[in-house]
Design a protein that fits this description.
With 220 residues, the protein is α/β, with parallel strands linked by helices. It is 40% helix and 16% strand.
């Protein structure tokens, strides 16, 4: 969304594509999960009286729109990309199959997982944690607008403390705004580390891949 109030900002898509293209050039297997809040949020629709399941399905379709936009930008940079959707829409995306996703990654393609888990009541965070486990990812990178995990929202509370390393249970017990509790629990049960970092700082993804201390780490 960038600086817009709605929709897709081409400059943001371009910047993200440049980051992904650089990592792909390092022969790193990369899979992406994209939200759809810039277009539609199921929870907000529920507040207006819409059925939650209907709203969540609309939100899943919004993630597919974003995924196609990013795929197009990546392919313009000669990065082979496949969109795998949890909702079956064969005309625009491949249906999600775990073995197919692994095969695409083995062949050096960037994989974009769209439509969340395909189920209502589950967030994009949970979809990211689930897909990360399914493809045996080494780490789950949570891209945000801030530098990591803070004790409070740093936008509204300038004195909030940046926490460089946090345990899964501490995140849950303190109610830290990292990911939803289902996603955190899933990562905890499977010992999948999470790194929360600022995607708006150019080069951060490359620095993470190269092992630099960027953002905040959630682990055991």
């Amino acid at each position: 969304m960038g600086s817009r109030t709605f929709g897709i900002d081409p400059e943001v898509v371009s910047a993200l594509s440049d980051e992904v293209s650089e990592i792909h050039g390092m022969n790193v297997e990369l899979a992406l999960v994209i939200g759809g809040g810039n277009i539609f949020r199921g929870m907000e629709a529920k507040a207006t009286g819409m059925d939650r399941v209907t709203g969540d399905h609309m939100g899943m379709l919004a993630t597919l729109i974003n995924s196609l936009a990013l795929q197009d930008a990546l392919e313009q940079r000669d990065v082979p990309t496949r969109v795998l959707s949890a909702l079956e829409i064969r005309e625009v995306a491949e249906p999600f199959l775990r073995r197919r996703a692994l095969r695409h990654l083995e062949k050096g393609r960037v994989v974009i997982f769209a439509a969340g888990t395909g189920n209502p009541y589950f967030t994009t965070d949970t979809a990211a944690a689930l897909r990360a486990m399914e493809i045996r990812a080494d780490v789950l990178l949570k891209a945000t607008k801030v530098d990591g995990i803070y004790t409070a929202d740093p936008v509204h509370e300038p004195d909030a403390e940046l926490l460089k390393k946090v345990g899964y249970l501490e995140v849950l017990e303190r109610g830290l705004k990292v990911m939803d509790t289902t996603a955190i629990s899933l990562c905890m049960d499977n010992s999948l580390p999470i790194v929360v970092f600022n995607i708006r700082k150019p080069g951060n993804v490359r620095r993470l891949v190269e092992g630099e201390d960027v953002g905040s780490m959630v682990s055991e």
